[in-house]
Amino acid sequence: MKTSTTPTASSKAGRKIRFGSLSVAAATIVALSACGGGNNNNGGASSSAAPSASASASSSASASPSPSASASASASSASASAPAKTTKVTQVTNWFAEPEHGGQYAAEAKGFYKEAGLDMTIQSGGPGVSATQIVASGKAEFGMGQSDEILMARENGIKLVALAAIFQKNPQGIMYHKGKYKDLSELNGHKVYVGSGSAFWEYLKKAYKLDKVQEMKYSGSLANFVEDDASATQIYITSEPFTMQQQGVDVDYFLNYDLGYKQYGNILYTTEEYMKKHPDIVKAYVEASIKGWTYYKDNTEEINKVMNEKNPDLKLESMAYGAQAQEPLIYGGDAEANGVGYMSKELWEGLQKQLVDIGILKSAEPIDGVFTNEFLPGK
């Protein structure tokens, strides 16, 4: 990671301008833009393609076009002498390669996607890149985003479905100078650098009665925060605290999840249409991705080097910090008992109600259509 307070275009700090959540004003614009696309014409994969026999055999939700259920077993035994057929698919992450994507890159680097019958392309996100629009238009089959993004997209006509939650606790937070605050409400009267209209901030303002906060536009730079020891700023707890540590600035932070804005992070998703048409491919993708996250947990140094080749501006020291900071957020909570990626109806309904209460969502649709655990390993 760059340690200067003015980030480069590809530094991780730039991500916080978007900060993972669609702004209230931008949600409708995204919907209109995305709906103009080709509605899942399988930009990277032909709709008739199917994953390899080995992927079909391991999938309890397989919808293989084979006329016989035993065909997969026969094909599997023959795969030793014949090359397996693979399906071209693309997934779009929500930023340049970083620890928050470690499992996805592990699945690619270790051949887990290929073993599942997928010829995978990982397209990095970045400034101005909307995974929502790309997936909705059919130019990619899978995307990565936050829970509130999915709920807002669905209300605006983009029928995304959450397939797995990589982060049980979203790493978004509010950073402040160490020892300055004990409660978020104490920010009243002080400057807070935050993305305008971010859903999490709208919730926090109402929940903690932050009516006297001086809202400052977040630009991606931490210079103003460093200079004003009474200020606070939005962050990812896997990133900015390390930047401050490198600069000798003592900080602490509130995790938005612990403040009551309980949403999952780095959701893997697709569209309702693609999920219904290609459940075998979806199953192969989710299982291989989760296998990648299992591998990444004990092999972070190896995979961080892979990601560093793709994103050299993010240094290995920063990646090591991020990997350690995110571990309890990914592998803890419900993931301990149910595995990485698990999602609960209770958490989804809670977030949905919060977004309705603060006026970001107009109504609450049946939550069962928003997410599914059926493609997770063992389901």
- The second-level CATH architecture of the largest domain is 3-Layer(aba) Sandwich
Helical element count?
A: 17
| Helical percentage | 25-40%
The level 1 CATH classification of the largest domain is Alpha Beta
User: Within the largest sheet, what's the order of strands?
Assistant: 2-1-3-10-4
Written account of the structure:
The protein has helices at residues 15-18, 24-35, 53-58, 71-78, 102-109, 112-115, 131-136, 147-155, 199-207, 223-227, 240-246, 272-277, 279-298, 300-310, 316-331, 335-338, 345-357, and strands at 87-92, 118-123, 142-145, 160-167, 172-177, 191-194, 214-217, 232-236, 251-255, 265-271. It is α/β, with parallel strands linked by helices and 379 residues long. It folds into two domains: 12-17 and 171-255, Periplasmic binding protein-like II (D-Maltodextrin-Binding Protein, domain 2); 27-57 and 85-170 and 263-369, 3-Layer(aba) Sandwich (D-Maltodextrin-Binding Protein, domain 2).
In brief, what are we looking at here?
It is built from 17 helices and 10 strands.
Which terms summarize this structure?
D-Maltodextrin-Binding Protein, domain 2, 17 helices, 2 domains, single chain, 379 residues, alpha/beta, five-stranded mixed β-sheet, disordered N terminus
Record the SSE blueprint:
Elements: H1 15-18, H2 24-35, H3 53-58, H4 71-78, E1 87-92, H5 102-109, H6 112-115, E2 118-123, H7 131-136, E3 142-145, H8 147-155, E4 160-167, E5 172-177, E6 191-194, H9 199-207, E7 214-217, H10 223-227, E8 232-236, H11 240-246, E9 251-255, E10 265-271, H12 272-277, H13 279-298, H14 300-310, H15 316-331, H16 335-338, H17 345-357
Parallel strand pairs: 1-2, 1-3, 6-7, 6-8
Antiparallel strand pairs: 3-10, 4-10, 5-8, 5-9
Helix pairs in contact: 5-13, 5-14, 14-15
